[in-house]
Amino acid sequence: MASSTKTVLPGKWGKIRAELAHAFSTHSGPERFTGEDIELLERMADAVVKRGMAAPATVFLESLGPMNFLGSQALYFLTPIVEWAFQAIEIEQVARLLERRDTIARLIAIIETKATPPIPPPAPEGASAP
To answer: What is the reported pTM?
Structure first.
């Protein structure tokens, strides 16, 4: 009886450890941004850049990046109030995006890309500079 307990217990303990290995992990499997997600992030970046707020928005987003999950939960909480100004589908999509850690970095990259002025083409040889 004692020998069967010694062989069964390590097997069960190993199974429990394997199941609980990722129980408190903050990283889920790799998720990809859908087309609608990218479109929403592009619209948000366009609005920021159009208003000339790229630098302040970037600083704001980088400083609040670690709290994006908390922001998503606050957005879920405030949905009944915010629905008066925005569409419910977009509010849910933004909240879902904020739950992901890589969304803020992606939004910052899009804002920086849109805010950088295009590089002018090189002047042809022999042309004088204005």
So the answer is: 0.65
User: How many Cβ atoms are within 10 Å of 111's Cβ, its own excluded?
Assistant: 23
The set of residues, in sequence order, having a beta carbon less than 8 Å from that of 111 and lying 6+ positions away, is 45, 48, 49, 54, 57, 58, 61
The full set of domain ranges for the chain reads: 35-115
Please count the other Cβ atoms lying within 10 Å of the Cβ belonging to residue 49.
18
> pLDDT by residue (tens digit) across 12-50?
777 777 777 766 665 555 678 889 999 999 999 999 999
Dist CA 58 CA 67 (whole Å): 15
Q: Are 110 and 42 in contact (CB under 8 A)?
A: yes
Contacts of 1 (CB under 8 A, 6+ apart): none
Q: What is the pLDDT of residue 8?
A: 60
- Chain centroid to CA 17: how far? 31
User: Tokens at residue 122, please?
Assistant: 């090189």
